[in-house]
Task: inverse folding
């Protein structure tokens, strides 16, 4: 247990054998046993055993009775493009989606985007605040080709399991309007991207049927998922979700298709919203949201009741679209809860589950919770209970990923 | 300079004589000289002089080149009622304004609300994150009488100048619908409350003219200001703002009347909004917002252009209305900026000014900035510039209030 072999030689991390005296989901004090990066036992903690603060001792970590949550899951990220850690970049583009796309194309080279260092900076900051798995959209376009996907893979590999990533090959600059992009998406899928992405089929490509048919053909051919950015609102957004539902059912891709943002769902009046949500549930469509301040909130309860899994993501962090964002998914959970008008404890717990345990499916994990057989991804915070953690988003005292201590007291160790 | 007399005997604070090597508003490195709780000089910092980290040495504080902002101003608080620092209180009331009022009346006694300890807990947490002045609404009703105001005064006095407060005598439970409350408000004003408050004259009292006439009569008689909570939206809210404008002009109370929340202003279509905003400016009405997630944002640029000063506040913090809120006004500035869609540097700076320098009028300060003659209230953060501080809300490295160091490295000293 106390062998130096427990210490990873490449960095300052420690391999955990026992994470003792933590309160999973705010429940009874427990010891989590870990081997091979997996939780192997969850047993009641012996409160009479001595505690010595959060200390690392040959793999036995004292959690001091802190609240434990599963590793946070960022279900919608753009880790290939950011200027996190670089000097301030004043936003200088025009407004609107198209204005931001154009601004990004014009200036990303100056910032080394996409780049491994850029991606490492974002991922390390995310790990610091407790994120241990991401689904990230990597730009695929005629300028960078598949380089964005490659830098994500390189950065994740360099972090040695501190975070896992699924990649969406993301046509940020459009699909049909940029001949050649559909072939790039197909090549990305052939090369291992877990999902192909889309972007506002109506307002960007001006051909919703054409873009979606192109994406679904790739998904069927390559056996990958689909994850479509859909900013289009109201009836136009709802119409495209209906097109997505039809094609999902026809292709037998239930459970493999995600609508990101999907502002329309929050904007529809209830009768129409209820119909659409029910149809999404029947087709196994999932949704991801970035809990945008000022937007109509998604009807989280209705979506979950209909079987539509909802994931939470950061969107871009300090990029050429916007200087906002820190990657702190627990702080974003506060935002999601506030946006949803959650006040009751059970709702606040739901928000925490959306950001962690319930989001395994967005990052290719069959089980992601503080249970035997799950990856040993654990976040400790000094909070009284889960609702307290959600409304206050305290500093992360300890982050364990894949059975290694990867952050402690707000400092990242990888 | 190094006399022990510089150390305040009552607590762990230090009286500042020079705050050296700081960057006011992100500008050139400067030394701020302080005497009698006031900034007496702002001079260029000599970069060749040695620095030793943020150390306290007989009143000379080294700011290590950190970004300096004026003390943050919480222009809309409820510091008399909170359970901050107490065990978690699950929200158990009904929805809506009336549901929350009823829930609060039923349970405040159990939590010792209003109470000096409650108020001290909130104020100390606010000071910790850089707030040095508040305008707080203290509940005045048939149950607590003026006790809420008294506890605020006692708590502020106990903090020895670490924060200053203006009080609004606030009829949280209604005015006309509770016979006797108008007399209590009058008594509060006679006893020194700086403002009398109101609450949704239409939907709570069911008599907008009656409530407003009652408040304006007190304001004219006692020479105090008016600060009305107005949740009522759309045309109903706008109508009541028009009633307020009329009475403000008639009473000659320009510059003394504030509309809090005023959701209606953000909800109106632009032509009507522009008319209303112009009329508010002409009457010298001010507004305070708590930047509510999910609400229509106030048109900040239009309001400021029309001469309508806007203040930012936290609203209640962990109270019987909602478990949300931490009192961190810089984090709330991030929220205001996001809600307003601010991306350009100058807009992000405007958000910071709304939360600090431009808010002096809400707390009875003629000047509140990093300039000679202003109160020596300074917040240091490790940020590159003001926009960076606004989008990231870093931990407060040092908080000076009234010329004393009242918080350091995230720890409150009073």
Result:
């Amino acid at each position: 247990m106390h062998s130096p072999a427990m210490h990873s030689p490449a960095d300052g991390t420690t391999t955990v054998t026992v994470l003792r005296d933590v309160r999973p989901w705010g429940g009874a004090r427990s010891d989590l046993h870990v081997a091979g990066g997996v939780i192997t036992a969850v047993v009641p903690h012996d409160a009479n055993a001595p505690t010595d603060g959060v200390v690392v001792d040959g793999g036995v970590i004292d959690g001091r009775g802190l609240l434990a949550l599963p590793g946070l899951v960022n279900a919608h990220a753009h880790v290939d493009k950011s200027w996190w850690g670089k000097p301030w970049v004043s936003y200088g583009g025009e407004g609107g989606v198209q204005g931001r796309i154009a601004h990004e194309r014009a200036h990303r080279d100056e910032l080394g985007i996409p780049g491994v260092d850029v991606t490492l900076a974002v991922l390390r900051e995310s790990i610091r605040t407790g994120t241990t798995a991401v689904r990230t959209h990597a730009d695929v376009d005629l300028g960078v080709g598949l380089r964005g996907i490659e830098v994500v893979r390189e950065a994740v590999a360099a972090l040695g399991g501190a975070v896992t990533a699924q990649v969406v090959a993301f046509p940020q600059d459009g699909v049909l309007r940029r001949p050649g992009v559909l072939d790039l998406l197909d090549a990305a899928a052939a090369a291992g991207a877990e999902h192909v992405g889309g972007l506002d089929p109506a307002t960007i490509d001006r051909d919703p049927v054409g873009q979606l048919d192109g994406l679904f053909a790739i998904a069927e051919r390559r056996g990958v998922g689909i994850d479509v950015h859909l900013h289009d609102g109201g009836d136009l957004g709802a119409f495209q979700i209906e097109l997505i539902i039809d094609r999902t059912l026809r292709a037998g891709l239930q459970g493999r298709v995600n609508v990101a943002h999907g502002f329309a769902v929050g904007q529809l009046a209830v009768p129409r919203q209820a119909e659409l949500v029910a149809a999404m549930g029947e087709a196994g469509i999932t949704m991801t949201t970035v809990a945008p301040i000022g937007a109509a909130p998604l009807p989280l309860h209705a979506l979950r009741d209909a079987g539509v899994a909802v994931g939470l993501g950061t969107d871009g962090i300090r990029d050429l679209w916007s200087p906002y964002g820190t990657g702190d998914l627990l702080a974003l959970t506060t935002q999601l809860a506030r946006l949803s008008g959650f006040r009751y404890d059970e709702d606040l717990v739901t928000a925490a589950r959306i950001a962690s345990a319930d989001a395994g499916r967005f990052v290719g994990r069959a089980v992601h919770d503080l249970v035997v057989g799950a990856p040993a991804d654990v976040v400790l915070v000094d909070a009284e209970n889960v609702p307290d953690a959600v409304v206050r988003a305290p500093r992360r005292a300890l982050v364990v990923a894949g059975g290694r201590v990867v952050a402690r007291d707000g400092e990242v160790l990888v």
In short: Chain B touches chain A through 30 residues (CB under 8 Å).
